[in-house]
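Please produce the structure of this protein holding MRU.
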Amino acid sequence: MTTTTALPYSVQWDDTHITLLNQQALPTITEFIKLYSVEDVFDSILKLKVRGAPAIGLTAAFGVALGANQDGSTDLGEFKQNVTKHIKKLASSRPTAVNLFWALKRMENILQAAKSIPAAKEALILEAKAIFTEDEEMCRKIGEHGLSLFAEGDSILTHCNAGGIATARYGTALAPFHLAKERAFPIKVYACETRPVLQGARLTAWELMQSGVDVTLISDNMAAHTIHHKQINGIIVGADRIAANGDTANKIGTLGLAILANHYGIPFYVAAPSSTFDLSLESGTSIPIEERNGDEITFIQGVKIAPDNVKTFNPAFDVTPNHLITSIITENGIISPDYVKNIPLFVN
Ligand code: MRU
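Below is the modeled complex.
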């Protein structure tokens, strides 16, 4: 892909700190914040200043490199213990996106193999940078494969933000749209607002408009009507964790859209890099689903919209069963059912 997307990098390593595009401030404020400690990194992941499965993983990897680089120990054993604590802390930030644990495992392997503190510090920075560069490459390839599934003039619906700002660059579900724009390939995108924290309205609409992609925002409850009346040709979403049988955890609301796609007979695509697969899980029933504070439902952008003390249930993700997924787009190609048989041919 030769795209020169105008989007800024949402995560950057700057030697003494990490620079983040603050995704909580978008779209009204485009603000870059500097993270100087592992605590800052943990807090930014927890509070969704950085979000999206691949971006969480690579930010945590840079967080480990940052913590290691700042460590003043002279004893290798003590150094390894300190960095292991940072890894554990970062692993406790969010439970669903497996990219977090995948990236931290890579960092832990580098840490354990190191023979000296200076060598460990250098190798950890290099590994975090490699995770970043590989993610950028994977997303570019996902864009190519994804675009091959669309025809000129298609209208495609998406949910949440699986874009450039949720990854190193380009995105997963949004990568085909950035590529289409580069190639003057006409395609219309409908973005669901994605309650409760509005990643679709605040981030996807902003990101696609930055790149000049034709995007129309709808509220979540308009999806069925829009699919029916606007000739939607397909739905594409990202993923936070894909089990060995293809069951896919993604932003809450994804399951409803997959059921709608099935009802209306349109394809339902999942786009994700191999770092999002968790082949240790047989099915989606074992994927841990994050439950977040009910304030995300009872307040919208700081404004209270529900009675005091109302009971809430706020799962951040749902699991779409494999039979509702037409295909899974990865950097290694497009996986079709039977997923149990075919996923190992593309992902290991
Ligand atoms: O809670 P979020 O905003 O981190 O949820 C993000 C999603 O569900 C994305 O669709 C997924 O992480 C893929 S990002 C390429």
